[in-house]
UniProtKB/TrEMBL annotation:
One of its GO terms (biological process) is negative regulation of DNA-templated transcription. Residues 14-76 form the HTH gntR-type domain. This is HTH-type transcriptional repressor YvoA. InterPro entries: Bact_HTH_transcr_reg (IPR050679), Tscrpt_reg_HTH_GntR (IPR000524), WH-like_DNA-bd_sf (IPR036388), WH_DNA-bd_sf (IPR036390). The gene is yvoA_3. Signal peptide: none annotated. The lineage of its organism: Bacteria, Bacillati, Bacillota, Bacilli, Bacillales. Transmembrane segments: none annotated. The keyword Lyase does not apply. Keywords: DNA-binding, Transcription, Transcription regulation. GO terms for molecular function: DNA binding; DNA-binding transcription factor activity.
Length: 76
């Protein structure tokens, strides 16, 4: 089975944060049968999607507000 990698469409009228949010929801749903694991950090998502931190933060905020994820602060 080929794994489809979802990406953002910079030509779309849909805001970047909404596209990121929908991609992450699709990935969470695809992994529902597996063990629970952390999703990427803000920094990793910024690098992955080649966007600034603002759309990543907005996407993660909405995911948390809607109960898809919860957020933790990592201490280095």
């Amino acid at each position: 089975m080929t794994k489809h990698i979802l990406t953002i469409d910079r030509t779309s009228p849909v805001p970047l944060y909404k596209q990121i949010k929908e991609i992450l929801i699709a990935e969470l749903r695809a992994n529902m049968d597996g063990p629970l694991r952390p999703i990427s950090t803000e920094e990793e998502l910024v690098l992955r999607f080649h966007v600034s931190r603002a759309p990543v933060r907005q996407a993660l905020k909405e995911l948390a507000d809607e109960g898809y994820v919860y957020r933790e602060v990592s201490v280095k």
